[in-house]
From TrEMBL:
Residues 44-155 form the CMP/dCMP-type deaminase domain. This is Nucleoside deaminase. GO terms for biological process: tRNA wobble adenosine to inosine editing. Coiled coil: none annotated.
Amino acid sequence: MTASVAALVGGAAGTGSATPTCELDEPTRSAPDRLLGYRPTLEEQRFHALRMAQAIRVAAGNPKYPFGAVIVDDTGTILSEGVNKSAFHPGHHGEVVAINSYIDRHGNSGWPNTTLYTTGEPCAMCMGMIAWAKIPRVVWASSVDVIGRSGIGQIAISAIELAARSHGIYQPRYLIGGVCAEVMDPIFLNRPR
C-alpha cells in the first residue's frame, strides 16, 4: 500500500487516527445564510400549511414511522405522494417513495415547478435524492433533532447543511423547516414503538 493510500485509509502509519478534512469554499459557507434568509409571506405560509396537511394525512398510513411526503406543482396540485415503507426496504423513506411515484407518473422532468412537503426533515439519503432531482423547494415539519428524540435513529446532519454542501449540483430556491411542527412533533414523540 502506498503512503498516500495508507494516509487516506488508516491515518499516519495505519493508526486509523486521521480524520479527513474538507475545506469549505465560499458558496458552501454562504449557502446556509441564503437558504435560511427566505421569509414566506402570510399567503405563502397558509399555502405551505395546507400542503403540509396533505403530507400529514399521508403519514397517518404508518403511525410507527410517520414520514409522509407529497410533491406538488406551483398551483398546489398534488403530483405524487409517499409514506415510509422502510420495513420492506431500507431506502423507501417517504420522500424517496414520493419521488419514485412522481417519476412513474410524470417522467424524470418538470422538477423546477415542484415543491416537496415532508413531515420530517429529510435525512442525508433523501436530501441527496432531492438534490439530484433538483427539487427547488423543500418544506418539512419536524426537525432531525425531534425525530431523533422520538427514538428514530438519524444521521445528525441538517438538510440545510446537506444542501449547502451540494451547491455544485443543487441550488434550491428555499428550504423551510418547522411548518406544522406543532402538529407533527407530538405525533413523532408519542408514536407507537
